[in-house]
Design goal:
Layout (H helix, E strand, L loop, with lengths): L2 H14 L3 H15 L3 H15 L6 H11 L6
Length: 75
């Protein structure tokens, strides 16, 4: 899909949204992404690729390890 088609699809999705909080969240995401440095953008893109390749650690495993390490904070 080319960039023009992607933008049109994104616009359609946004126009169909009825949740004001989600709309605000999307606006914030777009604005914050545009203020990142090139190194930050590259790191985020690399992280996304890593997750798409199933190289990430599942949330429940991270939480379990965190609770084990810092049990005094999880009572």
């Amino acid at each position: 899909m080319d960039i023009k088609t992607s933008k049109i699809e994104l616009a359609k999705v946004i126009l169909d949204l009825e949740n004001p909080e989600l709309i605000e969240e999307i606006i914030h995401l777009v604005q914050s992404k545009s203020t990142l440095t090139e190194n930050q953008k590259k790191a985020i893109d690399e992280a996304i690729v890593s997750l798409e390749n199933k190289e990430g650690i599942p949330h429940n495993m991270v939480m379990e390890e965190t609770k084990n390490r810092y049990s005094k904070y999880f009572k």
